[in-house]
Amino acid sequence: MLEVPNGFPWPGKRLLPGAGLPAPLSPQVGTNGVISTQDFPRETQYVDDDFPTDFPVIAPFLADLDTSGDRGNIYYRQDDSRDVLDQAVGYIQAGFPRSAGAFVPTNAFIATWEDVGAYQELSQHPEPSTKLNTFQAVVAYDDEDTYTIFLYPNGGLQFLGTRPKESYNVQLELPARVGFSWGDSDDPKRDGLFFHSLASSEEALSNLERESNTGIPGVWVFRVGSTEHVEPGGGEGAAPAVPQSPPEHPNPGTASYTHPLSSHTSMAQRPSHGARAPVLLGFVPGRRDTQEQSHWLRGDGGTRQSHSANPSSYMFTYSAASKETCAQHHGRCSPHAFCTDYAAGFCCHCRATFYGNGRQCLPEGAVHRLNGKVSGSLRVGRASVRFQDVDLHAYIVGSDGRAYTAISGVPQPAARALLPLLPVGGLFAWLFALEEPGSENGFSITGAEFTQSLEVTFYPGGETVQVTQTAEGLGPDNYLSLRTHIQGEVPFLPENVTVHITPYKELYSYSSSAVTSSGQREYVVAAGTANQTLSYRLRQNVTFSGCPHARPPARQRLSVGRAFALFDGHEHVLRYALAARIGLAQGEHDAENPGVSPCHDGTHACQAPARCQPGVGTEYTCECAAGYRGDGRGCRDVDECAEGLSQCGPFSVCLNVPGSYRCECRGGYRPAGDGQACVPVAPPSDPCEDGRHPCAPGDRARCLSRGDGRATCECLPGYTGDGIHCSDVDECAESPCHPAAICYNTPGSFSCRCRPGYAGDGFQCTYGEVPRLTPCQHERMYPREVPPLGDGHVPQCDEQGRYRPLQCHGSSGHCWCVDAAGQEIAGTRTAPGTTPPRCGSPEPTERPPSMCERWRQSLLEHYGGSPRGDQYVPQCDPSGDFTPLQCHGDSGYCWCVEQSGREIPGTRSEPGTTPPCLPSVAPPSVRPQPRPDVSPPAAGTFLLYAQGQQIGYLPLNGTRLQKEAAKTLLSLHGSIVVGIDYDCRERMIYWTDVAGRTISRAGLEPGSEPETIISSGLISPEGLAVDHLRRAVFWTDSGLDRIERARLDGSERRVLFDTDLVNPRAIAVDPVRGNLYWTDWNREAPKIETSTVNGANRRVLVHTDIGLPNGLTFDPFSKLLCWADAGTKHLECTFPDGTGRRVIQSNLNYPFSIISYANHFYHTDWRRDGVIAVNKETGAFTDEYLPEQRSHLYGITAVYPYCPGGKTHPDHIPLGMLLPA
To answer: Which residues fall within 8 angstroms of residue 1148, CB to CB, at 6 or more apart?
Structure first.
């Protein structure tokens, strides 16, 4: 951008409001020997016409010139180097020795036409002319003044005119024109003041390179910056032109402003014999082979980079290093914009059917949303009120200029006192106002990056408040982001009053980087039958970085036809609603324009996202906005991805969004530098594989790759240390063996051996001989450790202690056949929920009594054949196995058992409820038919995830995602499900709904109906956690900034915390230890906190090196608290006391929710719109699932076929005792 001070081509001062600086002007260089501050009209409108032109020009040689066929180059640049400016000063002071004596330019704009030819029609001239012209124009300026220099080197003008554009076969040549023009004047008396002609005849043109007004042949200087006229040099007497070899100067005559130059004109100086030719600034004689980068202007007006020899016969050398071009920076433009190069840079312009400033473009007529935060410090009457980062949401209907704004969480009395402050929402009315013909709304000028400063003074009290609103660009799905700060004093408003604001009009004034307005508004405060009319005065200023070549209207009028303000005390929400249109200021409309079009007064019948297109008079048509298709009355979204209309490159994924689409790189790829293509992501080296790690030897420690080229060291079990230095742990010091055994410490382990005379394994020793355990019995007594060190399988043994031929995993649901040694027989493993394999020999017709039957018979005999109601008797199925559900007589206590009859910890229920127990064999193949929108899940472990209006089901095969079996579990039309969790006792899923502002639940059994348990007192319920032991549910509300709890049926509801919370989101519970954890992604101070489940002992666990902790999970097996951070992109874990913090993965995309299962984490991701699997030990991404229906995924949880072990202490504490009301 070139900033030229006041003067040509607009006389007088042109300052930005309140800035005190000259307005930026951006010259454009034309092929036809002219420079202008406006876009050029068609050639036929100016190239053959005499002065004045219709648009402002500086014309060193205005003619029909041509650079095609490699005939000549056109160079231009801005320069502030000292050498160049010093030489320019020499020429200027030669022409103005007195008035320019103190002139010190800060910048110069230089344009050079080198070896350009006259345009020739091919049919008339088969051979191009060899006559070529070279000339130059320089604009030198500071903050106060501007001078223009024309330079014509000796022999530089070989032709003096060109053929007219529409000469047909007439042989005619029009002389070129040299001079200045401001454009046409509306005042005929001032025509002579609006142009200055230096030469327009062949005689005058032929003298340009021989004569001068500075004493240097071919150098002409003019002052154009401080007066209303162009002032030629040479009118103040002679002076040295440049520091070296000053020429002799004859006495000059009187300057002429409107007459052409000829050999007898008094303004021209005849140089003496010793006068020299123009000295070229930046050119060193003898160094003419210098190569330099230059801007090259083609005949069609476009620009490109070119390398060309240094032009050796004129002033300046050229460098393109400082100029930004479309070729370099087109990625800054919106995907819905095109890029245009200009003399001083480039600009972006939105394509048809889109509007904006080119950097950000939105579809015309579509619905838009805006999210933001509001902070402030207000004095209301005698009260001082502070609030931080409360939520602001706006909903825009672009087709008719309606803007709805809601601000929630502003404390009283400030919220009520802000009712008259309609300009807070009025900004959006101006941004997205309905545009009348010839006008532009605010977004068309500022785009989505600007700052509004607003000052409001209330009367009669004189209270003053300042509002600053900063737009921070467009986010995903074209959501505009805004931060608002309010500070000052506002009048107090009592309760039970309403505020009425009458329609108003407001005048806006525009410059290239600022918009200003001011005005007086009246509002009526009504209390019952009493009304009081009050007023305030406002002044506002919007600053932005716009395209310097844009020409916004000088003034526009915003007309607000409807204005509405309301405070909802029940929901604590302040609301503004406006309907606005914008048009040219009064007097700028066409006087003959008939009545107002329905498109402009909002009476049209077009349905969003269609836009109203004005016709003749009051006629109009409805047209679907870009990205939509239909007849205008009904518009449907175009799926550019499905129809192949997108421009997504290779290795990218096309994601359809309303009215448009976006491209995202596939996994393992990243955006290239041009912002369009995707290139492979170079995988970071694995220090664990190449040995570049500091860990202790492999027999003492293990190396864990973090996925970012770094590694973590951990000592192996049996060793202690930091992973780099590991020492053996003496387990014998803790006496782990039986008292009748001897402990032997070994490196990394130990062993126990019974003393002589005792038998056993060292952990259990019995005096004398005891029967030896079979391998199956030994494995049952000392099962393998839980994952990840073992698979957690407890084998099933028969009565003789041998392995049963059929083995089934108690948690995963897999079944397989084993041999006599208990080893799995390859190819026999079956998936959860399918029919188990047939193993071993067929059972005899008369089988021996099973363990369940023998135990049952033994107890019945012990009870005398008729047990009492409080005595337990095992229940056996027809095949002799224990039934999965066992109950204790008629006491009402029930629990689930394994196949061996052993109680599954954590499943015992209280009287009145029955635990859901999974059978140890395959489920029945025939099930009741569920309701149409519910698909019951199969047995085994699976994931549930929230995706807008549905809850999805994603089964696991071990830890791998069974993508082909994924399906919709529950459809919830009109909902937006965010938080989700599972009650393993009653097999119920619980979820939060931010659209319906409710919390609901549904069973996993076929035919279960959703049930709402919390339906009031919620604004934005997000995170949710279920405590299956205490039968409680906990949730966060980011609208109310609260954490609450209730019983699983919604009763005994109570607020746990409502202070020191800004944006609470994720929440997790440890039922066994009775601890609660939650995240607060307050952008100013994000943190993770904890307390007991009854709200005691609240404290901050993590508050450093976190950004947006969206997801949180507590792993009941490893006892680790882990979170996914969308700000730092980290997945981290810590112990429940905040110690042992470590990074698992440091290159997440945009995680939202996370859950832990076995040796994996599973999180939902908003960049990929899917479920991502991460290995706990290595941090590696192992799998991903992308639903066919692409939209954001929210909460995620894991559903086990059993409840994690543990019980509360003491047992069965009522929730009311834990959480007193």
So the answer is: 1124, 1125, 1126, 1129, 1130, 1131, 1163, 1165, 1172
User: In this structure, are strands 573-584 and 434-435 parallel, antiparallel, or unpaired?
Assistant: parallel
Give residue-wise pLDDT tens across range 401-413.
889 999 998 888 8
Band of pLDDT at residue 511, cut at 50, 70 and 90:
confident
CA atoms within 13 A on the CB side of 149: 39
Nearest to 1038 by CA among 167, 176, 389, 309: 389
In single-letter form, the type of residue at position 310 comes to N
Burial of 1170 (0-12, 13-18, 19+ CB in 10 A): buried
Where is average pLDDT lowest: 327-331, 898-902, 933-937?
A: 933-937
The angle formed by the CA atoms of residues 1198, 1080 and 1060, to the nearest 5 degrees, is 135
Question: What is the spatial distance between Cα 442 and Cα 525, in angstroms, rounded to a whole number?
Answer: 30
d(CA 884, CA 806): 18
For the CA atoms of 573, 579, 583, 585, the dihedral, rounded to the nearest 10 degrees, stands at -70
Angle at 322 between CA 678 and CA 140, to 5 degrees: 155
Residue 728: its H or E element = strand 726-728
How many alpha carbons lie under 13 Å from residue 1119 in its C-beta half-sphere?
13
Instruction: Considering only the C-alpha atoms of the chain, give the largest distance between any 2 of them, rounded to a whole number of Å.
Output: 144
**941, 945, 951, 955 alpha-carbon torsion, rounded to 10°:** -30
Please, is 590 exposed, middle or buried when counting C-beta atoms within 10 Å of its C-beta (0-12, 13-18, 19+)? exposed
Q: What is the mean pLDDT of residues 1195-1210?
A: 68
| Residue pLDDT, tens place only, 331-347 | 788 888 888 887 667 88
| pLDDT value at 153 more than 80 | yes
In a 13 Å sphere around the CA of 915, the CA atoms on its Cβ side amount to 29
Closest by Cα among 431, 50, 91, 448 to 242: 91
Residue 971's identity, in one-letter code, is S
DSSP secondary structure of 750-763? EEEEEPTTEEESSS
pLDDT digits (tens, 9 = 90+) for 829-863: 888 877 788 887 654 456 778 888 877 777 776 76
Residue pair 790/801 in contact by the 8 Å Cβ criterion? no
Question: Residue 602: its pLDDT value, please?
Answer: 66
Beta strands at 555-568 and 573-584: parallel, antiparallel or unpaired: antiparallel
Report pLDDT digits (tens) over 44-55: 778 877 787 878
Residue 960: enclosing H or E segment and its boundaries? strand 960-961
- Which neighbouring-strand residues pair with 980? 991
CA distances (Å), origin 338, targets 106, 341, 656: 33, 10, 21
pLDDT in tens, 419-440: 998 888 888 889 999 888 888 8
Please count the residues of the chain.
Answer: 1221
154-165 burial, b if ≥16 CB within 10 A, otherwise e? eebbebbbbbee
Q: Which amino acid is at 1183?
A: D
Q: Give the CA count within 13 Å in the CB-facing half-sphere of 961.
A: 26
| Cα–Cα distance measured from residue 398 to residue 396, given in angstroms and rounded to the nearest whole number | 6
CA distance 1147 to 901: 47
pLDDT over 70 percentage in the chain: 80
Model confidence at 184, in pLDDT bands (50, 70, 90)?
low
Q: Would you call 288 helix, strand, or coil by DSSP?
A: coil
Task: Show the 3-state SS of 1073-1087.
Answer: CCEEEEEECCCCCCE
Residue 859: which of 880, 883, 879, 875 has the closest Cα?
875
DSSP H or E stretch at residue 206: helix 202-206
Region label for 263, one of left (φ > 0), alpha (ψ between -120 and 50) or beta (otherwise): alpha
